[in-house]
Amino acid sequence: MEPKHSVMVLAEIRSQKVHELTLEMIAWGRKLADKLGVPVDCVVLGIEQADFQKLVHWGADRVLVVTNGRPDSLLATPAARLLVETIRAEQPGIVIAPATTFGRTIMPITAARLATGLTADCTELDIDPKDNLLLQTRPAIGGNIMATIKTARTKPQMATVRPRSIKPGGFDPTSQGEVIIKHYDTGNAWQETLLSFMGNEENDINLENADIVVSGGKGMKSKENYQLLEELAGLLGAGLGATRDAVEAGWAPFARQVGLTGKTVSPKVYLAAGVSGKIQHLAGILTSEYIIAINEDADSQIFKVADLGIIGDAPTVVTCLIQAFKDLKTDGKEHENG
Amino acid sequence: MKVIVLIKQVPGTANTRMNPETGVMIRDAGETILNPLDEHAVTEAVAIKKKHPGTEVIALTMGPPSAQKVLREACARGADKGILLSHKAFGGSDTLATSRVLAAAIQKIGAINLVLAGEKATDGETGQTGPMTAALLDIPVITFVHRLEVNEMHIIARRMVEEGIEEVKASLPALVTVVKDINNPPLPTIKGYILAKKQTFPVWGPADLAIEEGTLGLKGSPTRVVKIFTPKLSRQTTFYTAANEEQMPGAAEAVLKVLLNRSLIEKGDRYGA
Ligand SMILES: Cc1cc2nc3c(=O)[nH]c(=O)nc-3n(C[C@H](O)[C@H](O)[C@H](O)COP(=O)(O)OP(=O)(O)OC[C@H]3O[C@@H](n4cnc5c(N)ncnc54)[C@H](O)[C@@H]3O)c2cc1C
Ligand SMILES: Nc1ncnc2c1ncn2[C@@H]1O[C@H](COP(=O)(O)O)[C@@H](O)[C@H]1O
């Protein structure tokens, strides 16, 4: 049988574990591979102990576990070398990775070493039925224009994809596949060492991975009012965001800034309170599934991207929302008990 | 020490507006700025120079002749020299083709210790140029750096990753991409501007660089934009007015309904509050 150029997807590894984003990568791989009639290879770099069979049940045809047997194998240079070796050996047609600090570091190194193209931060991937090439779509110039990009002349076609741009596929405990362990000697010629790792505080919900993000702008009027959003976020289990103007006013640290120069979020629900919806802010929220906006100005641009618009005073509406949520909790409990 | 800073001229986004009908950006074509993150890279390079006297900071940009402007700004901020990489053949470069030119220029400069770049540029927003350039130079790269310590033989950098902060040591030469938290760029001084005004910047083209013609510009770029389209910006908005106390509960309920329908919250408290 003729070898088939697989779709290769890179597993996200964090703290020596396979991160759940990997399931999204496999889902992308499946979508593309099924159109091409080729297998999905999931490449796990740098760790040897995990339930790899699970990745088969989530849709991978093969799991390639690739290591060099060294503790620092996930640093940029050795990890990229492992990926380059794997690509050279397997000859995939497409390689995709999550657009995380990991994927966004080792994919460009790998692409440059293989002299092939790489498209960053795609939100949509598809196959062109005319030539079977990968269609890589990403927001361009701050997110108001989308560009579709092709890598026609070099192989493999490489892309990083934004987290949360696809849902994991179905889990099928009967699906069959192989787990293959590979060792490559990357030599000890690299010059990077991991000295230490300090984990984030546990309780701080990661803005970029939150299902709900509650975000405030200048329309919240004061730092005290902005803190109402903190309370709301705490109640909802939401991530807390801010506009640049709110950050500059000292209401929130820069780590909470959402937008072009801050974080990009893609939650299931984004709630913007007192946010005008300037283009630079929108750049960070446009792939949210559902957008709720609270603004006193009915003509505010934020309403152009909102699914639900509430015209009113943001601090008052947020206060009311906090109360309504608390009521819902107690009502619901009575209901459950009765 | 010789420190190279990769800087990019990007469209000034301050004046961007959107066409409300089409959602297309209206941009003042003439206005360009130094990529904001590159300001941080330049500031860091100048801080290294302060700590290590004798350090030379060279700003490098590939772009049209007008990109001289950002070299001048880098010099106003304390860079010693600037080199412009500009030629028709460079036009239409994707990140790989750009990195080839940058890597070739760095090789020509020679004997460099450290390369600094922004984590990403506000126009392309790819963040690929730094790591690609490092790969072509075959030197270590540390990305997303918010703290940098430079010694004669090595650097220690702290990088911000999703779950925390990683401290990595790398031997020199190396390339580092910086994030905004690394420093607070001061405004350039008048004196800096006056000094920078006198500078002239060498312009290098393909003939000055050891680089194959076919690997340059649009022709040498493996990626190609095949379609540009505007996503529909106007969503179907359901409006609620919450102008007075009577209208508030309706609005709040509408929000909660969205969350409930998506199973993001549930009635009752499973933690038993
Ligand atoms: C290069 C560049 C990069 C940028 N990057 C970012 C970025 O990453 N993220 C970002 O957010 N911004 C960014 N900006 C800034 C951006 O252009 C806007 O200035 C910013 O997003 C506006 O913040 P805002 O909505 O809080 O404030 P404003 O624009 O002042 O809007 C406040 C809104 O609140 C409403 N309001 C006022 N009072 C009330 C009330 N009582 N109740 C309800 N609503 C009320 C007003 O109608 C208005 O719509 C960037 C700008 C530039 C030039
Ligand atoms: N044309 C260029 N000339 C010099 N440096 C560049 C150029 N393009 C990108 N860079 C550098 O690479 C970084 C990331 O840019 P980008 O990959 O376009 O997001 C920028 O912050 C610059 O430091």
What is the secondary structure topology, with strand pairs?
The complex is a heterodimer of chains A (338) and B (273).
Chain A: E1 7-10, E2 13-14, E3 17-18, H1 21-36, E4 40-45, H2 52-57, E5 62-67, H3 76-90, E6 94-98, H4 103-114, E7 118-122, E8 124-127, E9 134-140, E10 145-151, E11 157-161, E12 178-183, E13 192-199, E14 212-216, H5 223-236, E15 239-242, H6 244-248, E16 269-273, H7 279-282, E17 290-295, E18 308-312, H8 314-337
Parallel strand pairs in A: 1-4, 1-6, 4-5, 5-12, 6-11, 7-11, 14-15, 14-16, 16-17, 17-18
Antiparallel strand pairs in A: 2-3, 8-9, 9-10
Chain B: E1 2-6, E2 9-11, E3 17-18, E4 25-26, E5 32-34, H1 36-51, E6 56-62, H2 68-76, E7 81-85, H3 95-109, E8 114-118, H4 129-137, E9 141-150, E10 154-161, E11 164-171, E12 174-178, H5 190-198, E13 203-204, E14 223-229, E15 238-242, H6 248-261
Parallel strand pairs in B: 1-6, 1-8, 6-7, 7-13, 8-12, 9-12
Antiparallel strand pairs in B: 2-5, 3-4, 9-10, 10-11
Helix pairs in contact in B: 2-5, 3-4
The structure holds flavin-adenine dinucleotide and adenosine monophosphate (AMP).
